[in-house]
Amino acid sequence: MTNLDIAQAATLRPIADVAAELGLDDAGFEPLGRTKGKLTTETLNHLASQPLNGKLILVTAMTPTPAGEGKTTTTIGLSQALRRLGKRAISATREPALGPIFGVKGGACGGGYSQVLPMEDINLFFTGDFPAITAAHNLLSAMIDAHVANGNALGIDVRVPVWPRTVDMNDRALREIMVGMGGKANGFVRADGFVILPASEVMAVLCLSRSLGELRDRLGRIHAAVNLKGAPVTAADLQANGAMSALLRDAIRPNVVQTIEGGPALVHGGPFGNIAHGCNSILATESGLRLADYTVTEAGFAADLGGEKFLNIVARSLGRGPDAIVLVVTIRALAHHGGGAPDATTLAAGFANVRQHIRHLRHYGPPVLVAINQFVDDDPALIDLVLELSQAEGATAVAANPWGAGGAGCEALGEAVITAAETPSTFRHLYDLDQDPTARLDAIVRVAYGADGADLTPEAKRKLKWAAQHGMGQAPICVAKTQNSLSDDPKRLGAPTGWRLRVRDIVVSAGAGFLVAIAGDIMRMPGLGADPAAHRIDVTPDGRITGLF
Fold first, then answer.
1. Dihedral of the CA atoms 90, 95, 101, 105 (nearest 10)?
2. Above 80 in pLDDT, residue 468?
3. Which of 156, 151, 321 is nearest to 229 (CA)?
4. What is the DSSP string of 380-448?
5. Chain centroid to CA 511: how far?
6. What's the rounded Cα separation, in Å, for the pair 126 and 74?
7. Domain check: are 470 and 341 in the same one?
8. Distance (Å, rounded) from C-alpha 259 to C-alpha 386?
9. What is the pLDDT of residues 231-277, one digit of tens each?
10. DSSP code, position 494
């Protein structure tokens, strides 16, 4: 059976019953049909005064294959296991973006018997959060054009593109475009472009805001353009942040759904881990910590990307780190990084990648566990080998079967996580914000990636200096690089040594509160491949979705 077959065969609880399990009554929860809903503003305001007493578990992964290694599946399976073990547990994951759904993955709700449901709805528009974020982002683009066309009182320099447009789809033709053509009535002819929605700063702002007031303030700080003197022009200068916030009034409220076993789940926000900070919303994570004993959250791609950004960007906003970190590995990925078919020699070589991630994650303080996400055709002897390799590295390792057995297949992992999370630990970040920006970047590339340092192009150095001159000198660093390698070269597998990260640009995300260091050839607008998942996705005459996987 496919993920979709299993999801469509499941019997879902009424969403009001799921919300009631969290102690939410009619005033605290707004149902959107029978199977999904949103926390109300009243609930969020009430929860804001409550302590963050729950245990927080971060799920991240080794460097993946192009197909991914099952972080979401493991996250959902672990939350189900903790619930089976008598804990009030909730998962907090990101909303799927349409680009990967129609490009490579075909769905992003977990898999097998560890999914969040309703799978088709969550994958396809869900509660309308992403369309609202798209509209808010593009409203700012339109208001920049309108301002210039109507006198340009702020003196915007149209020769310097700063604020791109966005769309929730992989579309390489939109990376670089020309706009304003067709005569004076259409504005100034100039270069422009699109980023995919998960790379939008509005997405990051929404995911890092705790209230509509904070959202409005952060949106106002966005650098929308620069003026003829080279100073930033903000969304607040353009009087755009109020209307943008109005579009996001409901999108900021976390969505409540359920796991395939009927447990509560929060699904909210969706920045990518390779080109943005890669984590679900602060509001969803904090809501989970206040509503449940255990909140299990994931960070996009591998520990060097979403994991590092959670621990150095999101954890700063939370004011705390996780109580335990789970590193997902697979036989498939180990063989991929070992450069051959799955056998003992290849896995031992590929384990160098896992070893680098373990050593990086240990820096932060909380216990690190290795979860071997089992596939149906995995050789048990190779599973045992990975357990031995992990334990030799000093990491607790557990084999789990979230896809095939759901929560029951993750109970051993759940027991190990409970033990780890109840072990006192001290959390620390990878760098301090009062360090020089290049020192912060250096800490990331040396500790998280295993590199010898970073080299900035003259343009990146200029942008970094400009950022410091305009109030962003002490911002966290969000590196945008390939997810396929610890390095900035997607072809360098395993754990490369003797290399330096090449940073070609710095993008100021003043609303989100971080600097984006763009490394290597990473693009903020992907393209569809020769055989995208869209070839297989369809709908029957009676409205049933097919082809998601």
1. -40
2. yes
3. 156
4. HHHHHHHHHHHHHTT-EEEEE-HHHHGGGGGHHHHHHHHHHHTS------SS-TTS-HHHHHHHIIIII
5. 17
6. 22
7. no
8. 29
9. 999 999 999 999 999 999 999 999 999 999 999 999 999 998 898 99
10. S
Beta strand 110-111 with 114-117 is antiparallel
Query: C-alpha distances in angstroms, 45 versus 26, 48, 397, 540?
Result: 15, 5, 40, 43
CATH number of the domain that 514 lies in? 3.10.410.10
d(CA 62, CA 433): 27
Are 413 and 464 contained in the same domain? no
Give the 3-state secondary structure of residue 397. strand
Residues 123 and 147 in one domain: no
Structure tokens at 258: 């359920």
**103, two tokens:** 């490009």
Mean pLDDT for the chain overall: 94
Residues 384 and 446 in one domain: no
Confidence of residue 1 (pLDDT cuts 50, 70, 90): confident
Q: How far apart are CA 401 and CA 405, in angstroms?
A: 6
Dist. CA 534–CA 435, nearest whole Å: 46
CB 303 within 8 A of CB 309: no
Question: 């004011």: which residue's tokens?
Answer: 319
In the prediction, which pLDDT does 105 show? 65
Q: Cα separation of 43 and 85, whole Å?
A: 27
Concatenated DSSP letters of 164-178:
-EEESS--GGGSSEE
The three-state secondary structure class of 311 is helix
Q: Give yes or no for residue 120 having a pLDDT over 90.
A: yes
Using CA atoms, how far apart are residues 238 and 234, in angstroms rounded to an integer?
7
In total, how many domains does the chain have?
A: 3
Radius of gyration of the chain (CA): 23
Q: pLDDT of 478-509, one tens digit each?
A: 999 999 999 999 999 999 999 999 999 999 99
Identify the residue whose tokens are 């216990």.
367
Are 52 and 138 contained in the same domain? no
Judge whether 425 and 368 are in contact, CB under 8 Å: no
Tell me the two tokens of residue 546.
């097919």
Same domain assignment for residues 408 and 318: yes
C-alpha of 406 from chain center: 23
CA dihedral 373, 374, 376, 382 (to 10 degrees): 140
User: Does 111 lie in the same domain as 157?
Assistant: no
What is the reported pLDDT for 68?
Answer: 83
Note down the domain range covering 483: 437-519
Q: Are residues 204 and 148 in the same domain?
A: yes
